[in-house]
Sequence to fold (324 residues):
Amino acid sequence: MDSVHSDRLSCSFSLEDVASNSKGGTRRRSQQLENSGLPKTCETCGSLASQLRRSSVCSTSKLDDQEGKKSVRSPRHRCELTSSSKYSAPRPRRIWDELPGWQLEYEALTPIQKQVMEYVASVGENASAAAKDRLKRTWRGFNISEQDFSMIEVYLAKKVPLTIRIDIQGLVPYLMNDPFYRTCFETNTKGETYLEARREFEAVLFNNLYEHPSVQPKDRPKYGVLNMVCHPFSDSRVSAFGSAYLLLKDSLRARTTVATSKENLGAAIRRVGTLDHMWHIVETLSTHEITRIHAVATGRRAKATVSPDSKYSEIQIHGMIDVR
Fold:
């Protein structure tokens, strides 16, 4: 960078010299006009000033071109140029882009958490598209139209409640002093066997990204559940975690992933996606659960009961959760 800085300094000095020489030339030409007895009109002065501006602009553009070529040819800065151009590509539009505050939530993530979201989005989008094609064939008997598919998609991405079951009596005293919802890696309330199992399936879901040395306990995801059918008391199948629940705000959808629970397909077989690409998660639900989701998503019912023969879908919230 020192060499680039010195080049810029030398460029600024040369421009000053050009300007001073040009001004000197203007004064000499003005003196010649006076000595010759010709009238020095405003048009003549304007013409000279116009030539001077064109001269300095041309000199500046040439110097900028030379400096740009030097930086492109320089091996030291070639990586920086490539990196900056990589992130200038337009981001694909997501279904929650119109939700207020989502961008602030996403930008608050750590670099590792953003990599996790990008990884899950890329993997989930392909898996979800393939599952959607399969479901269109298998759901023909349920009278689910193409418009209904779109309504279900919007419902899952933008409307389905995101909840975290809590033991309110045990948690509230801690929240009085610390407004952030903490993971078991921070609270040390679980044994090492449980924590190791959590690390293992997070490694499977998120491509080992949370095993990076820079990851701190507070950076790991927090867990909740999708209230698929808008039940007033959330999902009763996870009542073991507490009798109350936190209802998360919509802007958190941009940093939420969803996965099949270990009770659904087994601990060794997990599917993960984002809320706008999760048909491969829906594909694992029971027939009763699907008909209930369809009824709520299309407005035929405001809420529905939880199907006892279906398994819940977990959500992972990446980043901090402030309950204030």
The first helix runs from residue 2 to 36.
